[in-house]
Every structure is written in structure tokens, then in C-alpha cells.
């Protein structure tokens, strides 16, 4: 096929609006006036039975000689089976990639495709499902324990021994739980990289067996009446501030987490109705649960309402039920309750504020024979089975209200050393559970119906 059919620049300059394209041969041609006063160079070619067209720029910015040279390069590529369009896209992507890399270096950001880059993108995709506190902890763990060692490495070049070496650095500090959490994060990041096609396999897979096992840590708690009785009497004798004393008195009566207690505000309480409504945003759970979940309704036995009534004049100046001594605009600190136990002579290995949830859960089940599923809902735990459908029904809350009043009355009897008589007096016939979701007899009897 003939080439170089355009006579020269004089021929091109002689073009008038409405003229047809000038063909130079073997796929190269010029379209007159396609871009205002400029003419557009085009190159047609066929590859794998597909007809394609490339733009080579506009005349006069791209002259006749330059257009022919570009067309010649593209013909050679087509002859070797390479698509010029794909090559151009790859070159454009490479240029943008270099530009982005320069921008990242200037801004102190991780390079594209490194572990840190992938991990940060993974973290951003997950934060919508996490609570803000959990998202912050995960990011801090990555920055503290993982990024200094794996961060700059290309994610595709990291192998299992390299990941294990980093994990064992954490393990050497004696923090096995943190080590396993770091492994979970690495596994998720590499899984994200697999999904994006950056790596073929997950180098964190199977490493759990190479690490020391985690021994589950439980909050210290007293779980027998014999231990609980003197503790309750010691709490009653607390000589500190009225706010902390009230918190100690209320904690065993409501089975909530200490954080939920110390952030309580007066507008959450209905003392006349006997309920405390904890907003979902303050409950433990995912971000979706905090944003869209139901509130947690805590029944207030008579003893709890009495504590709150006595506390109201003291804490009147604050929206918080348990304000800080330093500022009425903040709740008391997270260590206040546990420090009160230390003042009473109970070390952290024996008693913690959070441990009172285990105290109530254990003794109400084993001694008072309250239905365990009722207790799980009272503790705001996720439970399977029929309770999942009745979690928010007002008639089910009655069971919990009765259970918590029974518990409060039992604690009073325990303080006086009259718990055996109390349990005997309340015993249900034939050893049946006194508060059972499948049997409302206990509910009706305790409610005086």
C-alpha cells in the first residue's frame, strides 16, 4: 500500500472548510477542521480482526513529518502483535503513577502498593462498620507495631516468615493478646490485597499456630455469696465523696458496664416509672448498632431509685449523674470506681467495677435461679433463640424488672446475713426457676398479681 500521499505542508494549508480528509496511506490520514481551526491526525489499524483508530494529535502542533514517524512506530507495534492503544494507556497510567508517587513523597504519604498504603485503604473501608473507638485502636496498633517493619515494603513481596518475625517482636513484649490482634489485622489487610489482585495468596494465613496461645483474661469478680456479703458491707462504709459512694451503691443494682454508668445523664432516667434508658450510641457494639440499634432499657429496683433520689441534690449542677470532682462538665474518670475498691482494701486481682456484671450473672443464675436468657438480655448481650424476637417488647421487660428487684432484695438480705432465709422464702416449687420466660407464674407472683 502506498505511503506519503500528502504532498506537503502547502497541501494541508490549502484545505478549506468542507474538504474531505487527506489520506497519507497505510492508515494515516488528516481530518480537516475537527478542532476549530486545527486539523486532526488519525491512524487506523486492524488487530485480532478488530478495527481501531488512534488520534495522533492536531496540525500544526504535530507536523506532517512527526505524524508519519508516529504512524510508523504504531505499524511496527501492530506487526509484532502489540496494540498501540493499550501501550498508550499503559504509558499514560505510568505517568500518572509517577506523578502520584511524587505527590505522596512530598506529602509524607506511603508509596502506592506498599503494606501501609493497602492497610490504610483497608482501614478506611471498614470504619463505616466499626465504632470510632475500635477504629482508632486498630489504626494505633498498625502504626505502633506493624508499619515500622512492614509499612514500606511492597505488599506483593511480603512472605509468611517476614510477617511472623514482626509478630514475634510484639510477642516478645509479653502481650500475647495484642500479638493475636495484630495477626488478625494483618490477615485482613492481605485479604484486602488479594481481593484487589495485588497478591495471589495471604501470607498471614496459618501463622496463628506459630504464636503463643492467648489465655483469656477475665475481669476480677466475686461470684459467691460468702465473698459478696463482706464486700457489700465495705462498699456501704465507703468514706469518700457522695458521688463515688452513690456509684458504688448503684453498680451492683444495675449490671451495666462502668463506662455506661459513669457517662449516665439525668435525662436518661425515669425514676417514677423505674427505668433507665441508655442510648445505643453509648452501648458496646458496632457503629451500625450505635447509630441504628435500639436503646438498652435497665430496670431500676426500689433501692436504685432511692440512691438516685438522694444523689440528685448533690449532682444537681451537672448533666452527669456522676460528675467529676474537678469539673461538673465531665463525668468522673474511668479509674474512679476501681480506685475506690483499692481504698477499701480490695486489689484489682479480687474486685473490679466491670466484675459486678459477672457477680450478678453468676449468683442470680446459681442461687436465685433466674432464667439465664433473661440475664443475658439484662446484660445487653446478643442472645440466640426466641429472645431475639422479644428483645424490645415491653411485656418482656417486666421479667427483667422483677428479676432485678429480686436481686436488689437479695443483696439487702445478704448484707444482713439473712440470705438463706430470703432464698428459702422465695423458693419455687419442685426446683423450678422463679423467673422463666416460658412460665409467667413467677412473674405474676412477684408482681403481686
Q: Can you walk through the features of this model?
A:
The protein has 449 residues and is an alpha+beta fold. It folds into 3 domains: 9-92, Integrase, DNA-binding domain (Double Stranded RNA Binding Domain, 2-Layer Sandwich); 115-210, Tyrosine recombinase, N-terminal domain (DNA polymerase, domain 1); 225-446, Orthogonal Bundle (hpI Integrase, Chain A). The chain contains 19 helices and 7 strands. The protein has helices at 9-13, 64-79, 84-107, 115-126, 132-150, 160-171, 176-195, 225-236, 242-254, 258-262, 287-292, 302-311, 336-343, 355-366, 372-378, 387-390, 394-415, 419-426, 441-446; strands at 22-25, 28-35, 38-47, 50-59, 269-270, 275-278, 296-299. A hairpin with a 4-residue loop joins β5 (269-270) and β6 (275-278). α17 runs antiparallel to α18 (419-426). The longest helix is centred in the N-terminal third of the chain and has 24 residues, at 84-107. It starts with 8 loop residues before the first helix and ends with a helix.
CATH class of the largest domain: Mainly Alpha
Reported for the largest beta sheet, the result is: 4 strands, antiparallel
**Uncertain ranges:** 389-395, 440-449
Lateral strand order in the biggest sheet: 1-2-3-4
- Sum up the overall morphology in one term: elongated
The helix-and-strand class reads: alpha+beta
Per the CATH scheme, the topology name of the largest domain is: hpI Integrase, Chain A
Mean pLDDT: 86
Rg computed from alpha carbons, rounded to a whole number of angstroms: 36 Å
Strand content: 5-15%
Domain tally: 3
The CATH superfamily label of the largest domain reads: Intergrase catalytic core
Second CATH tier, the architecture of the largest domain: Orthogonal Bundle
Beginning-to-end CA distance, first to last residue? 105 Å
Amino acid at each position: 500500500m502506498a505511503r506519503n500521499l500528502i504532498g506537503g505542508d502547502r497541501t494541508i494549508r490549502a484545505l478549506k472548510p468542507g474538504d474531505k480528509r487527506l489520506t497519507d496511506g497505510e492508515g494515516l490520514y488528516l481530518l480537516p477542521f475537527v478542532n476549530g481551526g486545527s486539523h486532526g491526525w488519525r491512524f487506523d489499524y486492524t488487530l485480532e480482526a478488530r478495527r481501531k483508530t488512534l488520534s495522533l494529535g492536531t496540525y500544526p502542533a504535530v507536523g506532517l513529518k512527526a505524524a508519519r514517524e508516529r504512524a510508523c512506530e504504531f505499524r511496527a507495534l501492530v506487526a509484532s502483535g502489540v496494540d498501540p492503544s493499550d501501550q498508550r494507556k499503559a504509558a499514560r497510567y505510568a505517568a500518572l503513577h509517577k506523578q502520584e508517587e511524587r505527590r505522596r513523597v512530598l506529602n509524607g504519604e506511603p508509596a502506592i502498593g506498599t503494606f501501609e498504603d493497602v492497610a490504610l485503604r483497608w482501614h478506611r473501608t471498614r470504619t463505616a462498620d466499626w465504632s470510632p473507638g475500635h477504629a482508632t485502636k486498630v489504626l494505633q496498633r498498625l502504626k505502633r507495631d506493624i508499619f515500622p517493619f512492614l509499612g514500606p515494603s511492597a505488599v506483593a513481596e511480603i512472605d509468611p516468615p517476614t510477617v511472623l518475625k514482626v509478630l514475634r517482636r510484639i510477642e516478645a513484649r509479653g502481650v500475647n493478646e495484642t500479638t493475636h490482634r495484630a495477626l488478625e489485622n494483618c490477615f485482613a489487610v492481605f485479604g484486602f490485597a488479594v481481593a484487589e489482585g495485588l497478591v495471589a495468596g495471604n501470607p498471614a494465613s496459618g501463622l496463628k499456630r506459630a504464636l503463643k496461645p492467648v489465655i483469656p483474661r477475665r475481669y476480677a469478680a466475686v461470684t459467691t455469696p460468702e465473698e459478696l456479703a463482706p464486700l457489700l458491707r465495705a462498699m456501704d462504709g465507703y468514706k469518700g465523696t457522695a458521688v463515688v459512694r452513690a456509684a458504688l451503691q448503684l453498680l451492683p443494682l444495675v449490671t451495666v458496664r462502668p463506662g455506661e454508668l459513669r457517662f449516665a445523664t439525668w435525662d436518661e432516667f425515669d425514676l417514677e416509672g423505674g427505668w433507665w434508658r441508655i442510648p445505643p450510641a453509648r452501648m458496646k457494639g458496632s457503629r451500625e448498632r450505635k447509630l441504628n440499634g435500639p436503646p438498652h432499657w435497665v430496670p431500676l429496683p426500689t433501692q436504685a431509685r432511692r440512691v438516685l433520689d438522694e444523689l440528685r441534690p448533690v449532682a444537681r449542677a451537672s448533666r452527669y449523674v456522676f460528675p467529676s470532682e474537678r469539673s461538673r462538665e465531665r463525668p468522673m474518670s474511668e479509674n474512679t470506681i476501681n480506685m475506690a475498691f483499692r481504698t477499701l482494701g480490695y486489689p484489682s486481682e479480687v474486685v473490679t467495677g466491670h466484675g459486678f456484671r459477672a457477680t450478678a450473672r453468676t449468683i442470680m443464675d446459681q442461687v436465685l435461679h433466674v432464667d439465664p436468657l433473661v440475664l443475658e438480655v439484662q446484660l445487653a448481650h446478643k442472645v440466640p433463640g426466641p429472645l431475639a424476637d422479644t428483645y424490645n417488647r415491653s411485656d418482656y421487660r417486666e421479667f427483667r424488672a422483677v428479676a432485678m428487684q429480686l436481686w436488689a432484695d437479695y443483696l439487702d438480705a445478704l448484707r444482713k446475713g439473712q440470705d438463706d432465709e430470703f432464698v428459702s422464702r422465695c423458693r419455687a416449687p419442685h426446683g423450678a426457676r422463679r423467673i422463666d420466660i416460658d412460665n409467667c407464674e413467677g412473674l405474676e407472683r412477684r408482681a403481686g398479681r
